[in-house]
Every structure is written in C-alpha cells, then in structure tokens.
C-alpha cells in the first residue's frame, strides 16, 4: 500500500524517525470518454459521474452549425460486445427525452 511505502522510505532515509503518514484519494480520473467529429469542442473528457450521451454532447458545446444530425451516429468504441451504435436524431427527439443513454 502507498501508506506503507511512504512510511518505510521516510524511516529508512532518516528524514523522519517516526513518520505519521496519511493518504487519501482526492479525485479519480481513470474513466474517460471522447467526442469527435462535428462537435464544437472535440476531445477527451473525464467521466466523473454517470453521464448520458446527450449530456456529453452538451459538455462538448453541442454540434457545429452545419453538422448533419440525421446522419450523426453515436458509437461506443471498445472490445465489449455489448457496446452499441445508435442514430442521434431519434435520441434527441422530445418524445424520447426519458430514454437517456448512458456513456457508462
């Protein structure tokens, strides 16, 4: 554990004779998602809380002015066979606002 490693190094290097070490996690940034194509701010985003695809698009500033929304495809890219591919237009329909699709 990190706590033990730091404590042992401080003791063996004679920096502190009896170190009092505390370790805590302040942020977890291991999960990420990426948006590319005709969005205003393409790139990598940290997935800190559960996020829907529509929320991810909002984080990216939405689509550019001339993006072809009828042709837009949302795709989760991984080795997981449960990943999916969906057309954007039906997801963005006001009739489907309750059917949010999660990034995770």
Can you tell me about this structure?
The protein has 3 helices and 4 strands. The chain is α+β, with helices and mostly antiparallel strands and 104 residues long. It has 2 domains: 28 residues, no CATH class; 74 residues. The model has no long low-confidence stretch (mean pLDDT 76).
Brief digest:
The chain is 22% helix and 13% strand. The chain is α+β, with helices and mostly antiparallel strands. 0% of the residues are buried.
Number of helices: 3
Question: How many structural domains can be distinguished in the coordinates?
Answer: 2
Percent of residues in helices comes to 10-25%
Main sheet overview: 2 strands, antiparallel
What's the gyration radius in Å?
A: 22 Å
Question: Which key terms come to mind for this protein?
Answer:
alpha+beta; two-stranded antiparallel ribbon; 4 strands; 3 helices; 2 domains; 13% strand; 104 residues; 22% helix
Task: Show the helix and strand layout.
Layout: H1 2-12, E1 32-35, E2 43-46, H2 53-59, E3 73-75, E4 85-87, H3 88-92
Antiparallel strand pairs: 1-2, 3-4
